[in-house]
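Customer escalation, tier 2.

The customer says the design service returned an amino acid string that "doesn't look like it belongs to this structure." They asked us to rerun it and document both sides in this ticket. The original structure tokens are below, unchanged.
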């Protein structure tokens, strides 16, 4: 319960003259003590924490609902009751005693639901303090329980940096352990939290997990940029790319889950953060078998005033594992640079035979549709699209659209596309390397276009469905449209569905441009 300090003359405490006078009399006779008293008005009790101002709090037995909005004093602490829980109210928060407190020493961020479900009896936790962050620091209350917790942790860093932005701090070397942070999902005991991450087939919503991974990686990057005094230089940190993520084992929503990560490599103005998703189940109690997913995020730093690249605190690996992770990240960084150089070369010398082979069946579909293979389908006939306006509630701490939100929307569209194509619920396998080409701003018109690019049918019991999602940033006023991101997801279907006679069709291109996209993806898969 958070106490509410208000003057006794406030109309909120005046119910009638007799009760008001008796309450004032009781306060006058006992204001020098430091005890708790029950008032003649059964709604409140009060305690004298000092000799000048009593602290009032609500008795939960007297309320069925409490109004916590005081427009004439919006900066005051919120009055909270222990009243009856209303299941239709679904807000989430982090259980914290001080809204400005830094991350705990263990670096664990517990995610707690504030509404009791059918199998829970815990009382709601007050989330009022998180609603009063400055608008420039606190994005809209759109985000998931995890991103809410991370925005609160991250904004506490920014409050100090903004207050001390005139102070010049020097770059320092930091160890990976100084940025290590983890999130614990108590799915086994938190019904409401479990409901937020469950899809219609009682499986994990992978799009929400990708969103949380990006949010935690961003928080870790800011943590690395803080100095020993807690100040953060005024820089912008943005997601540049995400390496290929392969699901090593299925992730369920009935068992507790943990995401942890740390900075593993730092260049001059970029850093790599390795994220690990772990889940122990009765079938795999061994910690070495609990790793379900590993992801590597690359962030780049920009000066908040000039937009140019900004230097970062260097990394100082200590343990043998940290040194090994640094070496692996260094190799990946070199490979990224080589890949960018190779992509700039002329691609006209591609294998013409492979291109013609891909187009052969497509030409039959276009020129002689009655004779086309009934087990095949054109790429253009698998297309789905989703359009939306970018709202302020989806922005990140810099006022631009949160990268994790884009990943989630792309993942959900890809899942829907694979579902409509296969005729059975798909299972997520992997998402390939993601590059963020263009920033997305509030007010932009965002279009996601997806298609099944190709299928792999060599294993009849485990067919692979490769889905492409391209995000276009459209600005109608300027009559322009640019590609913001390209996502490539791989799904499969359950073996039991294949045993029941489900058949996955072959996908063929109809144009040379489509055939080149297919070849590029096939070559990219083979090179990894």
């Amino acid at each position: 319960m958070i106490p509410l300090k208000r003057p006794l003359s406030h109309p909120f405490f005046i119910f009638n003259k007799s009760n008001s006078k008796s309450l004032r009399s009781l306060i006058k006779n006992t204001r020098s003590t430091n005890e708790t008293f029950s008032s003649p008005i059964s709604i409140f009790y009060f305690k004298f924490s000092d000799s000048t101002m009593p602290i009032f709090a609500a008795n939960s037995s007297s309320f069925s609902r409490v109004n916590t909005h005081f427009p004439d004093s919006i900066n005051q602490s919120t009055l909270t009751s222990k009243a009856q829980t209303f299941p239709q109210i679904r807000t989430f928060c982090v259980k914290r005693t001080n809204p400005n407190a830094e991350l705990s020493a263990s670096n664990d961020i517990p995610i707690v639901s504030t509404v009791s479900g059918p199998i829970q009896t815990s009382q709601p936790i007050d989330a009022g303090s998180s609603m009063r962050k400055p608008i420039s620091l606190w994005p809209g209350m759109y985000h998931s329980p995890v991103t809410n917790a991370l925005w609160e942790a991250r904004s506490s860093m920014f409050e100090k940096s903004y207050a001390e932005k005139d102070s010049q701090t020097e770059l320092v070397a930091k160890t990976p352990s100084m940025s290590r942070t983890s999130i614990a999902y108590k799915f086994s005991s938190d019904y409401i939290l479990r409901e937020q991450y469950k899809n219609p087939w009682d499986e994990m919503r992978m799009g929400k997990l990708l969103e949380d991974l990006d949010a935690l990686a961003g928080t870790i990057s800011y943590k690395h940029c803080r100095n020993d005094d807690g100040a953060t230089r005024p820089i912008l940190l943005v997601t540049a790319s995400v390496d290929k993520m392969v699901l090593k084992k299925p992730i369920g929503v009935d068992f507790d889950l943990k995401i942890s990560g740390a900075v593993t490599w730092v260049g001059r103005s970029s850093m790599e953060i390795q994220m690990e998703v772990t889940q122990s189940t009765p079938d795999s109690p061994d910690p070495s078998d609990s790793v379900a997913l590993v992801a590597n995020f690359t962030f780049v730093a920009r000066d908040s005033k000039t937009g140019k690249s900004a230097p970062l605190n260097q990394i100082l690996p200590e343990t043998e594992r940290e040194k090994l992770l640094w070496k692996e990240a260094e190799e990946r960084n070199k490979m990224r640079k080589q890949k960018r150089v190779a992509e700039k070369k002329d691609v006209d010398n591609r294998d013409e035979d492979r291109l013609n082979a891909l187009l052969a069946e497509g030409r039959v579909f276009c020129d002689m549709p009655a004779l086309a293979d009934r087990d095949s389908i054109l790429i253009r006939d698998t297309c789905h699209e989703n359009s939306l306006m970018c709202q302020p509630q989806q922005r990140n701490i810099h006022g631009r659209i949160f990268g994790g939100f884009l990943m989630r929307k792309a993942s959900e569209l890809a899942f829907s596309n694979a579902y409509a194509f296969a005729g059975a619920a798909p299972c997520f396998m992997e998402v390939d390397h993601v590059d963020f080409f263009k920033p997305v701003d509030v007010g932009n018109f965002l279009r996601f276009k997806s298609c099944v690019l190709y299928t792999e049918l060599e294993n009849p019991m485990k067919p692979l469905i490769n889905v492409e999602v391209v995000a276009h940033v459209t600005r109608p006023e300027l009559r322009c449209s640019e590609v913001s991101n390209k996502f490539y997801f791989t799904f499969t279907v359950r073996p039991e569905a294949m045993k029941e006679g489900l058949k996955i069709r072959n996908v063929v291109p109809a144009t040379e441009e489509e055939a080149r996209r297919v070849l590029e993806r096939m070559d990219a898969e083979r090179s990894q």
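Tier 2 assessment: The sequence is consistent with the input. The domain at 144-159+171-318 is CATH 3.10.129.10 (Thiol Ester Dehydrase; Chain A). The radius of gyration is 28 Å. Sent an explanation to the customer and offered a walkthrough call.
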